[in-house]
Design a protein that fits this description.
four-stranded antiparallel sheet; mainly beta; globular; Jelly Rolls
Length: 98
């Protein structure tokens, strides 16, 4: 069985490793592509579409496109996380060779 491989990255950029200081709160972001966030170290509270969850190192969350989301650093430790955006898929061509 072939592997199902999907490329995740920011349009025109590589995945982004982010360092956020304790007490930081990013509110009400919306993106037109899916975002996947991996917590590498530290603790955070993430709100995705009105559902809130606490995350810590090793946790991953998918934020569907066009979904309002927020992130707050919890505790006194710097938060390290990796964020990547899924490029929109190109429509497949339905034209058949002549």
């Amino acid at each position: 069985m072939p592997l199902d491989v999907t490329r995740w990255d920011k349009p025109n950029e590589h995945p982004n490793k982010v360092f956020i200081e304790p007490g930081t709160h990013y509110k009400d972001f919306i993106h037109d592509v899916d975002e996947i966030v991996w917590i590498l170290r530290g603790d955070a509270r993430v709100d995705v579409g009105g559902e809130s969850v606490a995350l810590s190192g090793g946790d991953r969350v998918l934020v569907p496109r066009n979904t309002r989301h927020s992130l707050e650093v919890l505790g006194r430790q710097t938060l390290y996380w990796l964020a990547a955006f899924k490029k929109p898929e190109k429509p497949s061509s339905s034209r058949k060779p002549a």
